Amino acid sequence: MSGRVHSYETMGALDGPGLRLVVFLQGCPLRCRYCHNPDTWATDAGQEISVGEIVHRMQRLRPYFGRRGGLTLSGGEPLQQPEFCRDILLACRRLGVHSALDTSGGVWDETCREIVDLADLIILDIKATDPTAWQALTGRDAFAALADLLAHLRSTSHPVWVRQVVAEGLNDQPEDMLKLLDTVSGLRLERLELLPYHDLGRSKWERLGLQYAAHDLKPPRPEVLAALRKIIAVNWPTATDPKTAG
Ligand code: SF4
Predict the structure, then answer these.
(1) Which of 6, 37, 208 has most ligand 1 atoms within 8 Å of its beta carbon, as the pocket-test mutant?
(2) C-alpha 63 to ligand 1 mean position (Å)
(3) Are residues 124 and 165 in contact, defined by beta-carbon separation less than 8 angstroms?
(4) Lowest CB count within 10 Å: 77, 140, 200, 231, which one?
C-alpha cells in the first residue's frame, strides 16, 4: 500500500504528546479561508510513498519518541486517503508506537470510523460550531460529517485534543467559546487549544495563483485571546491549553 505524502516533520512537539514523526498527507476536501497549506489540497500532488517507507522512518526515529511520543497523521486531511491511513495506523499498533490522527472532521463514513478507532489520539480541528459558519469558513457543506465524528468520539470515549483557530470578528467573542465548550461536551477531552489566526500562508496562495480568501480576518488581540482562554479554563479546568499554562 502506498499513498501521497506532502511532507514530514521529524521531531514534531506540537501535534500530539512527546516528540513525534508527523506525516502530512496530501489532499483535502475543504477550502478553509485561512488555510496556511493550500499546497496540500490537490490529491495528485506530493510524493507517492509506501507504508513500508513510513514505517522505516518511524523506526529510525523511535529512540527519540520516549514513552509518550510516536507518529501523527496530519494533512491536508488524512482521512482523504483512508486505506493508506489504516495501514499506517495498523503498523503503529503492531509495533507498539503511539499514534495520533489530526483531522478537520470534514470526511466521515464507515471506513473513517474504523480508522479513527485505530488511532490512540484524535486531534480535532473544529473550524466552527454551527453548519452555516462551518460552511462559510470551509467552503463545503459537510458539517454533518463533523457531527457524526463527534457522536462517535463520545460513544467510544476516545482521547481527543480539540483545536480552534481564533480570528478577530470571526469567533473571538465569549459566546463563541461557550458554543465551543458545548460542542465538545461529553468528549474525553485532554486539551482544548485556541490558536491565533495568522496569515503566514498567504504567499502560498499567491504562488498557486489563488486569491487569498481571508484578507478580512485579523489575529485576535492578545488580551482578547487571553480572556477567551480564561473562559475555557474556568468552564473546563481539566482541558489544558499549554499556551496558557506557562
Ligand atoms: S482542513 Fe486544513 S488543510 Fe484543509 S483547507 Fe482547512 S486548513 Fe487547509
Answers:
(1) 37
(2) 31
(3) no
(4) 200
